[in-house]
Automatic annotation (TrEMBL):
Needed co-factor(s): NAD(+)
InterPro entries, sorted: Glyco_hydro_4, Glyco_hydro_4_C, Lactate_DH/Glyco_Ohase_4_C, NAD(P)-bd_dom_sf
Keywords for this protein: Glycosidase, Hydrolase, Manganese, Metal-binding, NAD
Protein name: Glycoside hydrolase
Residue ranges of domain Glycosyl hydrolase family 4 C-terminal in the record: 194-406
SUPFAM superfamilies documented for this protein: LDH C-terminal domain-like, NAD(P)-binding Rossmann-fold domains
UniProt KW Magnesium keyword: no
Single GO MF descriptor: hydrolase activity
Keyword Manganese: yes
Similarity-based family: Belongs to the glycosyl hydrolase 4 family.
One Pfam short name: Glyco_hydro_4
Cofactor binding note from Swiss-Prot or TrEMBL: Binds 1 NAD(+) per subunit.
Length: 433
């Protein structure tokens, strides 16, 4: 079993307890390890650490668990870094979602201007993390869940020598939207997706060994007027049929932009505002569980459920235990593994993970009908990462204008300046002038 020092940055978040429960559910794969939970809020860190220690003890695991607000001390001699943090917390996300709506733009926390500004904040923190790692843990591998995972990875891989593998469950869960909408059993489907994180399409799609598309055609004809089918499910099924490829859910923001924009502008609250209202209930539950002998997290009262960051844990286990696994990972497109994208662009694709690292499996090109938009998003990703790591206001505006959700240069300029001012406490001075 792998005995490593794992540092969990952002472990005091509302997802922290669920993530630690998930790691400990794989505890035997990491017997002999040390886990240090790091964040900026000592009270929340204490709650997550207490819950984790009690779970580990109840399961008889040989895993040492501690917490600290001192990031450099935590990172000293680390083997692995699990990073999942949100600078500014959900209040910042609320601004990411709300401000763009005033300009007739979908904010979207990973895709649109909202995602861009989250990248600027996250990468600003990553600059410090990299400096710490270079000083005290030069060989540590970063397993990243900090969003937008593609832009974060693009910046770190392009401007540093650090190894960073970013994960997202999208390639696993996105096909289920279309399959359920079509009344099909996901267990009988084999769907391979690739592209840019949150913007991936199927390059292979079979059902019981046969082409999936005729089944989706029939389902669309049968269910296009079905009132029991949700609006989102109907959109995704329609999009799959039209483009002859299974889409990521996030493509609703591009192919149904005007409809989604009207829905968001008409909603009383944004998703972040809903989460802010729910947070006190999550922490009340965690405080209750830290005071019982054997904590048992209730999925309905835990942020994101109780099995968080599971894919990163699978990648870590395969790597440190040298057990070959087929898993989706975001990493540079070395050797042009995914046709149609530059070698240094971070793409999301299925890979083999083992003790040697992460290696892309043979990739088929995206269909021409959908490739252009994903390539445009890759160029935005590239510009966003550059602006975040070393750019100024002009670089930021260029990146903003390259985002497909932003309609004009004037909107890009106005939106950038308003959002930069709102987030100024979390941005480097160079991005404000």
């Amino acid at each position: 079993m792998a005995g490593i020092k794992l540092v969990y940055i952002g472990g005091g978040s509302s997802r922290g307890a669920g993530t630690m429960a998930s790691i400990l559910a794989h505890g035997k794969e990491f017997d002999g390890s040390e886990i240090v939970i790091q964040d900026v809020d000592p009270d929340r860190l204490h709650a997550v650490e207490t819950i984790a220690r009690k779970i580990a003890r109840s399961q008889g695991l040989d895993i040492r668990i501690s917490s600290t607000t001192d990031r450099r001390a935590a990172l000293t001699d680390a083997d692995a870094v699990l990073a999942s943090f949100r600078p500014g917390n959900f209040a910042a996300r609320a601004l990411d979602e709300r401000i763009p709506l005033k300009h007739g733009v979908i904010g979207q926390e990973t895709q649109g201007p909202g995602g861009f500004f989250m990248a600027l904040r996250s990468i600003h923190i990553y600059e410090d993390i990299i400096r710490d790692l270079d000083a005290v843990a030069p060989n540590a591998v970063i397993f990243n869940y900090t969003n937008p995972v593609n832009i974060v990875s693009q910046a770190v891989t392009r401007f540093t020598d650090r190894t960073i593998w970013s994960m997202c469950e999208g390639p696993i869960v996105f096909p289920k939207t279309v399959l359920h909408a079509a009344g099909l059993d996901p267990a009988k489907a084999d769907i391979v997706m690739s592209g840019i994180n949150h913007n991936i399409w199927s390059v292979e799609h079979t059902y019981e060994g046969k082409d999936l598309m005729p089944l989706l055609d029939a389902a669309w004809e049968a269910r296009r007027d079905d009132p029991t089918l949700s609006v989102h499910a109907k959109r995704m099924l329609r999009l799959a049929v039209a483009m002859r490829s299974v889409p990521a859910d996030y493509f609703q923001y591009y192919y149904f932009r005007e409809e989604v924009l009207r829905e968001l502008q008409g909603a009383r609250t944004t998703r972040a505002e809903d989460l802010l209202a729910a947070l006190p209930g999550y922490w009340q539950h965690y405080e209750e569980q830290m005071n019982v002998e054997v904590p048992s997290l209730d999925p309905a009262r835990s942020r994101g459920g109780i099995h968080e960051l599971e894919l990163a844990i699978d990648v870590m286990s395969a790597y440190y235990n040298n057990r070959s696994a087929r898993l989706p990972v975001n990493l540079p497109n070395a050797g042009g593994a995914l046709p149609g994208f530059d070698d240094d662009v971070v793409v999301e694709m299925w890979c083999t993970v083992d003790g040697q690292g992460v290696r892309p499996l043979p990739q088929k090109p995206l269909p021409h009908a959908v490739r252009g938009l994903v390539q445009q998003l890759a160029e935005f990703q590239y510009l966003a990462a550059e602006a975040a790591w070393k750019g100024n206001r002009a670089d930021g505006i260029r990146a903003m204008a390259a985002n497909p959700m932003v309609p004009t240069l004037a909107v890009a300029e106005e939106l950038y300046d308003e959002m930069a001012y709102a987030h100024r406490a979390y941005l480097p001075e160079r991005l404000l002038k």
